[in-house]
Structure formats: C-alpha cells, structure tokens
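Quick question, first post here. What does this chain look like in 3D?
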Amino acid sequence: HTGGEQKMATGLERIAEIVAKHPTGKLQTLVHYINETTLKEKHKELPADKATGIDSITKEEYGKNLDENIKKIGARH
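> Answer (accepted):
Ran it through. Tokens below.
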C-alpha cells in the first residue's frame, strides 16, 4: 500500500467513527480523500458481480476505460 491509500483507509475509519457518534451530523470534508489513485483502488476492490450503477454501466465496462473515466470524474468537480 502507498501512503495515500493508507491515509484514505485511516481517514475513512475516522469518518466511520464520527458518523457512529453523530449519526445526524453532516460531513463536509470528504473531498481531500478522493483522487485518481484512491478511485482506481476502490474500483479494483469492488466485487466482480457488483450491480450496475444508475447509468447501467457494469464494473467491467467502466474498467475498460478506467483512466479516462476517472479523469472525467475529476473534470466534473
């Protein structure tokens, strides 16, 4: 694992703790955990039989152009 992946895992664990303690609270600081590396890693971790998304694209289809698709996500934000 790289430092970024470890940082994301630690950060997500911390977020889970906060949400458990404050279930009605709002989280507004997640964006610093989202980048191309972490999105690619999370895509790899998805089960192969993952249901399609709202856009009806399967994990396999999305993965065929993973780099380009993830760059598009970054361009939208």
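The chain is about 60% helix and 0% strand.
The first helix runs from residue 3 to 21.
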